[in-house]
Amino acid sequence: MGARDGPTLITSVQRAFRLLEAVSAHENGAPAKQLARETELPLATAYHLLRTLVHDGYVRKLDDGGFILGDKMQTLQTQGRGQALLSRVRPTLAALRDELASAAYLTFYEEGEIRVAEIVDGPRAPRVDLWVGFEDAGHATALGKSVLRELDEESRNDYLARHALADLTPRTITSRRQLLRSLASSPMAPAVTDLEEYSLGTVCVAVPVYSGDTLGSLGVSLPAERLPRLDEVLTRLIPTANRVTRSLSLTI
């Protein structure tokens, strides 16, 4: 195989990454001349690349002429940490899906919203049709109600004040008083159920999980005819939630 048969590499991209690595090595910033010297780049090339990185937010230029990493790099780092955390628990969710033949869901309460972080489904365990976003259906899903049940009163009231209790099916709870009463008296606590309240023909059960101080929920969806087997589902769901919390609490 000839030397030209290898992968096609973009030199300018490689140079930009070398500059980012050099910038990250200087906590208090470094001037372009120093960065060019450390990366063995022509000064003009370093200037052009730094100008582009500054424009796009990956690098920030200080008043003294030094360069430090920009806000976009911090965002990438945060998102990368989140991906790494999810990669830890994905096999556990897949095992739960296979054991129960049910789609598994993981949500987190972030910035005042209940957001789906991961769904693990398959041909034998299809996900529920997400015809209404979970952010707008916390009152009608087991995943959302699990989070609402665990929130402190102030946070729960804040969420409910910002989200209408939309009538998604004939079984959806649309009364705030009734919803709060059902959360306080869940017969399967710490588990919470959704009995065709989000989608007719589908029931869900969820329990709380934590990623550090961040509250979330782990749940599965089932055809309504499997409702009599809910106790059996819980015997597997609760230990799995404990394992997920332990995995998410490990420091990367």
From TrEMBL:
Organism in which the protein naturally occurs: Streptomyces populi
Protein name: Glycerol operon regulatory protein
UniProt-listed Gene3D superfamilies: 3.30.450.40, Winged helix-like DNA-binding domain superfamily/Winged helix DNA-binding domain
Gene Ontology MF term list: DNA binding; DNA-binding transcription factor activity
GO biological process terms held by the UniProt record: glycerol metabolic process; negative regulation of DNA-templated transcription
Taxonomy, superkingdom: Bacteria
PANTHER family: HELIX-TURN-HELIX TRANSCRIPTIONAL REGULATOR, ICLR FAMILY, HTH-TYPE TRANSCRIPTIONAL REPRESSOR ALLR
SUPFAM superfamilies noted in UniProt: GAF domain-like, Winged helix' DNA-binding domain
Coiled coil feature spans: none
InterPro entries xref list: GAF-like_dom_sf (IPR029016), HTH_MetabolicPath_Reg (IPR050707), Tscrpt_reg_IclR_C (IPR014757), Tscrpt_reg_IclR_N (IPR005471), WH-like_DNA-bd_sf (IPR036388), WH_DNA-bd_sf (IPR036390)
Residues covered by the HTH iclR-type domain: 10-71
Protein role: May be an activator protein for the gylABX operon.
Residue ranges annotated for the IclR-ED domain, each copy included: 72-252
Keywords noted in UniProt: Activator, DNA-binding, Glycerol metabolism, Transcription, Transcription regulation
